[in-house]
Recover the amino acids of this structure.
């Protein structure tokens, strides 16, 4: 069992170290992670520039690889043959939860997407650290990550499915359990913040308060609000199946199509 | 009707000009697009640096706005109030198709995702330009884009749904029609290309042949192979519903959970 560990916070992030250490009892671990923070960077495939890879050392002395690419680039490089064949990709531990719409922005989650596209199981782990905690304890979350990875190694994942795992910030004895959820609804509270530089020219921050969510039962956000670890299976088929029929009922043009019938 | 036009190829791309011109009969058009190419850049929210916005002029003399942010940042800036309220966001016309798994990588598509997150209808337009065409004719595709946008303005889109529109490279008289499809399967043919710089240090390209796809009937890729315009409704709920049951049947741990029951 060869496990690739990556993240979107950069190779020296403490959440990555905790995840790498948690995976070690399960197999051989290789770390290949970005050399900087790529939070909210999305699903990237870097095609317009080459990527550098260099060796580094984690805080516990573990050798690791780092690149100037995105989290999904790290996974692509690894699975295209930079390192020996990988059986499982784990990403994280992100210091903030990745709920709802976060999943397409999140480097943590898109790294796991990249694995699934290459037919390798992918798991994304995120910890819901309270806003005032700048030095979170990743130990309980890392133990959860090991349990989830162990189970996935034993059972396998359905084809095309990745797991988005969100872990509440609780002590080991406080978790209510693990539940399988659906993706919930994020509520973003972004605001445009206009400032002026010393020359009087405007610039803009995407600011505002941290996002919240709708704590509906059965969802990722709802599970964490109740003290459960949330595991949401995600797929890369985004087809809105419930919309297919209504769109097919539209008359796409009253005039005959130039040169052909309209087929709804 | 106020229509925001953006893209992922940069504000001076001819596909954007064709789209902006095509939208003009439908309402007021504002162009806000990146100042460089962001292809395969994914769904980005730039929070770690401020964004600049400057005025520019398109090749036909149209005033436009451009930023150093990603396509999804352009949409966020606009919808957060940089410009007056927007009723419809259109993105493109991308000079390459966006099929299957492309949708989470694609700046063209993620711009439309950003619109939908803000409850504004979003449409992504991509043209399947043949590989040897470096100066494609966007006119037929732009006419299709106007027809689709006109229909969406008249009918409205289901909540949370964006449209991923792929247009075959055909003359007006050659289109077989418009069909509503599901997201198909991309086949990537990426290869790791290792090179050495003049100092003998390695660097890596994600290279290989252009992706292909599985031309299954009813899918985006299948529709274009048959000469149809493909419209795929997409949603941002990625929950793999078919996997929920099997994951719930797993025993997550044989030992009792520390401090609580396991709930499948």
């Amino acid at each position: 069992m060869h496990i690739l560990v990556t993240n979107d916070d950069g190779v020296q992030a403490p959440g990555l170290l905790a995840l790498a250490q948690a995976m070690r009892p399960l197999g051989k671990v290789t770390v290949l992670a970005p050399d900087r923070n790529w939070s909210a960077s999305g699903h990237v495939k870097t095609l317009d520039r080459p990527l550098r890879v260099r060796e580094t050392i984690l805080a516990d002395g573990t050798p690791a690889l780092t690149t100037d690419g995105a989290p999904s680039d790290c996974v692509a490089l690894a699975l295209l043959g930079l390192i020996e064949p990988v059986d499982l990709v784990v990403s994280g531990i992100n210091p903030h939860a990745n709920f709802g719409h976060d999943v397409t922005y999140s480097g943590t989650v898109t790294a796991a997407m990249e694995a699934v596209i290459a037919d390798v199981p992918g798991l994304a782990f995120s910890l819901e650290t309270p806003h005032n905690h700048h030095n979170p304890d990743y130990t309980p979350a890392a133990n959860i990550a090991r349990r989830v990875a162990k189970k996935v190694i034993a059972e396998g994942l359905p084809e095309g499915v990745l797991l988005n795992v969100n872990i509440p910030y609780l002590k080991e004895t406080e978790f209510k359990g693990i539940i399988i959820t659906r993706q919930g609804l994020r509520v973003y509270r972004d605001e445009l913040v206009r400032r002026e530089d010393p020359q009087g020219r405007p610039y803009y921050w995407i600011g505002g308060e941290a996002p919240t969510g709708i704590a509906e039962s059965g969802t990722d956000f709802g599970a964490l609000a109740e003290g459960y670890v949330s595991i949401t299976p995600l797929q890369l088929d985004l087809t809105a199946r419930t919309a297919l029929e209504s769109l097919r009922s539209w008359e796409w043009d009253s005039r005959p199509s130039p040169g052909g019938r309209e087929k709804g």
Summary: Chain B touches chain A through 90 residues (CB under 8 Å). The longest helix of chain B spans residues 139-155. Chain B has one domain: 2-185+213-239.
